[in-house]
């Protein structure tokens, strides 16, 4: 019995509509050129993030199907991981790498600028912490010097004197 046997081979044969360049209208050809340009721009943008040296993940893209049946990237993102660090110096180094990766593309997006801004804030906080630590070291050192000076002045003359640090 041969009922429907020939139709099995034709199921889905015309599902994929790809037009040849000759079949495309001028508007469709123009759209393809725009999609190709956008695809190139998006992929270069995300590659710039990845090549900047920070800890980045794999790029993911949003695609649009063109009139020629091809898929074109119209958007993308690269995750950038950022950890604080075990010391202010390490946090500053990590923040600089994130800023570099976020601002690596020729035309950083608003999201890129926001990431760079957040990393800058973390870097400034780490720099403040580092400055505070340095100040405490200096103050501790000056306190020791002051104690020595007080001790020395009580032994000898009571006249005030100037010390430049």
Task: Give an account of the 3D structure.
This protein is mainly α. The chain folds into 2 domains: 58 residues, no CATH class; 71 residues. Helix content is 53%, strand content 8%. The chain is built from 3 helices and 2 strands. The protein has a two-stranded antiparallel ribbon. A hairpin with a 5-residue loop joins β1 and β2. α2 runs antiparallel to α3. The chain is rod-shaped, with a radius of gyration of 32 Å. It starts with 25 loop residues before the first helix and ends in a 10-residue tail after the last helix. The N terminus and C terminus are likely disordered.
How big is the Rg?
A: 32 Å
* Average pLDDT taken over every residue: 79
How many beta-strand segments? Answer: 2
Bin the helical content. 40-55%
Give the CA-CA distance, first to last residue.
106 Å
- Strand order, sheet with most strands: 1-2
Treating each run of at least 4 consecutive H or I residues as one helix, how many helices? 3
- SSE ordering: HEEHH
The major sheet is characterized as: 2 strands, antiparallel
Overall tally of structural domains: 2
Structural class: mainly alpha
Strand content: 5-15%
Summarize the SSE layout with pairings.
Elements: H1 26-51, E1 60-65, E2 71-77, H2 88-102, H3 110-155
Antiparallel strand pairs: 1-2
